[in-house]
Design brief:
alpha+beta, Alpha-Beta Plaits, four-stranded antiparallel sheet
C-alpha cells in the first residue's frame, strides 16, 4: 500500500514595507493612487494572499512614528511573486510607487 505524500507547504512570507512620502503635501494624491491602483493591482497578484496599507498614527506611549505608511503584503509563493512583480503592469505600479515613496524599507519576515 502506498501512502500519499504529505503536503509540506512553505509558510507564507510577509513583506513589510515602511516608508514616508517624498512630498508630505502629496498625501491625498498618494492615498487616492494607492486605493485606485496599487492595492487592487498588487492585491490581485496570484502570489499575494493579502495586501494591506496602513497609515501610521504615532508610537504607542506617545511620539511621532518614524514612518508615515506601512504596507503588509502576505506572499504565499515567493518564486511566483518574483514572476508577478516582473510583469509590465507591476513594473508600472512599482515605478509610480517610487515617485511617491522616499527610500522605502522592505522587510522579509517569516512566522515563528
Amino acid at each position: 500500500m502506498r501512502l500519499p505524500r504529505p503536503n509540506f507547504e512553505e509558510p507564507a512570507v510577509t513583506l513589510i514595507v515602511l516608508f514616508n512620502l517624498k512630498n508630505p503635501a502629496a498625501a491625498a494624491d498618494y492615498e487616492r493612487w494607492a486605493r485606485e491602483v496599487d492595492l487592487p493591482t498588487a492585491g490581485a497578484l496570484p502570489s499575494v494572499e493579502r495586501f494591506e496599507l496602513l497609515k501610521a498614527k504615532g508610537l504607542l506611549g506617545g511620539g511621532a512614528s518614524p514612518y508615515q505608511y506601512v504596507e503588509i503584503i502576505r506572499v504565499k509563493d515567493m518564486a511566483r511573486f518574483g514572476v508577478d512583480v516582473a510583469s509590465a503592469a507591476m513594473q508600472r505600479v512599482a515605478a509610480q510607487f517610487q515617485e511617491f515613496a522616499d527610500n522605502p524599507l522592505f522587510l522579509l519576515t517569516d512566522p515563528l
